C-alpha cells in the first residue's frame, strides 16, 4: 500500500503502542486520526505531530459512540484506509479480586469494541485497506493472573483469523500484532499484579510494536500475524501444544520473571 495521504485511525493513541504507531504512520506520510479517552493528553500528542494528525477524544468502550467516531473521520477525510485497534484495558491478578463489571469492561474494550468498530469502518474503508489488531502473546497461551485479559486477546486473535474471508470480499485485509511484555506505562498502575510469568519474556518497546503494525499494513497477506518477540511467540505455541512442557518450564520461567520484574521496578522507580 502506498501510504502517502492515506487515512489511518489509531485507538488508544495517547500513549504507549498507540502513540508510537500514530507517530510512525504520520512520519510515513499518512494522515492520522488519534483516538483515546483523555482529551487533554490526546490533543497535546496530536499537536506535537502537527499537520495531518487529528485528535478525536472518544471512549471506544462506549459502543454507542463508535458510529459517531467513524462519521467524524469520513466527514473530515472522505473515507478510511487503515484501522488500528489498539485500545486495551487490563485488571491484573486473580480474577476474583475484581468486580464483575471490571471483567466485563476488559472484554468490551479489548474484543467487542474492535469487532464493532471494524464492522462500522468496513462500510467506509477504501479497497486495499487494512485492519490491524494489537492483540497479545497472552492470547496465544493463557497466562495465570491475566485470565480474563488472555481470554479477550484470544478472542480478538481468532476473530481476526476467521473474519479475513469476509473482509476479503471487499478487498480489505486484517492482521494481528501479538506483543509480549512491552516497556511502557501499561504496567505502572498495578505493577504488583503483573505476574512473574509475564516478565519471564524479553520486553519489546512501543516503537518495535509500531514497526510491526506498519509491516502488517504494507504486507499483502491476510490474515497474518507478527509475534513480538519472535522466539516468545514460538514458545507460546509450544506451551499451547504441550501442557506437560508448559508445566515443566513454568517454575524456571517464573524465577527468571521475578528477577526481571524486580529490575524493571527499580528502573522505573516503582515499589
From TrEMBL:
Alphabetized InterPro entries for the sequence: KR_dom, NAD(P)-bd_dom_sf, Sc_DH/Rdtase_CS, SDR_fam
Top-level taxon of the source organism: Bacteria
KW Glycoprotein (keyword) present: no
Domain Ketoreductase: 6-185
Entry keywords, A to Z: Oxidoreductase
Cellular component annotations (GO), alphabetically ordered: membrane
A single MF term (Gene Ontology): oxidoreductase activity
Matches recorded under CDD domains: SDR_c
Similarity comment text for this entry: Belongs to the short-chain dehydrogenases/reductases (SDR) family.
Name of protein: Ketoreductase domain-containing protein
Native organism: Nannocystis exedens
Amino acid at each position: 500500500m502506498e501510504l502517502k495521504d492515506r487515512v489511518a485511525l489509531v485507538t488508544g493513541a495517547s500513549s504507549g503502542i498507540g502513540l508510537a504507531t500514530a507517530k510512525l504512520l504520520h512520519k510515513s506520510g499518512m494522515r492520522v486520526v488519534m483516538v483515546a479517552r483523555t482529551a487533554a493528553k490526546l490533543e497535546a500528542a496530536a499537536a506535537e505531530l502537527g499537520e495531518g494528525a487529528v485528535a478525536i477524544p472518544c471512549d471506544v468502550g462506549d459502543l454507542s459512540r463508535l458510529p459517531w467516531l467513524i462519521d467524524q473521520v469520513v466527514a473530515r477525510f472522505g473515507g478510511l484506509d487503515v484501522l488500528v485497534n489498539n485500545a486495551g484495558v487490563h485488571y491484573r491478578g486473580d480474577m476474583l479480586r475484581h468486580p464483575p463489571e471490571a471483567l466485563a469492561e476488559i472484554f468490551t474494550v479489548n474484543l467487542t469494541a474492535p469487532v464493532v468498530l471494524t464492522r462500522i469502518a468496513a462500510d467506509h474503508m477504501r479497497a486495499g485497506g487494512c485492519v490491524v489488531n494489537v492483540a497479545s502473546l497472552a492470547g496465544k497461551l493463557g497466562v495465570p493472573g491475566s485470565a480474563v485479559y488472555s481470554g479477550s486477546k484470544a478472542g480478538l486473535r481468532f476473530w481476526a483469523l476467521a473474519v479475513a474471508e469476509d473482509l476479503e470480499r471487499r478487498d480489505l485485509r486484517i492482521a494481528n500484532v501479538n506483543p509480549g511484555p512491552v516497556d511502557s506505562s501499561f504496567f505502572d498502575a498495578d505493577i504488583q499484579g503483573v505476574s512473574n510469568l509475564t516478565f519471564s519474556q524479553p520486553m519489546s518497546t512501543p516503537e518495535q510494536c509500531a514497526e510491526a503494525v506498519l509491516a502488517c499494513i504494507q504486507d499483502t497477506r491476510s490474515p497474518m500475524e507478527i509475534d513480538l518477540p519472535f522466539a516468545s511467540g514460538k514458545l507460546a505455541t509450544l506451551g499451547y501444544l504441550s501442557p506437560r512442557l508448559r508445566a515443566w518450564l513454568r517454575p524456571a520461567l517464573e524465577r527468571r520473571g521475578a528477577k526481571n520484574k524486580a529490575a524493571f521496578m527499580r528502573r522505573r522507580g516503582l515499589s
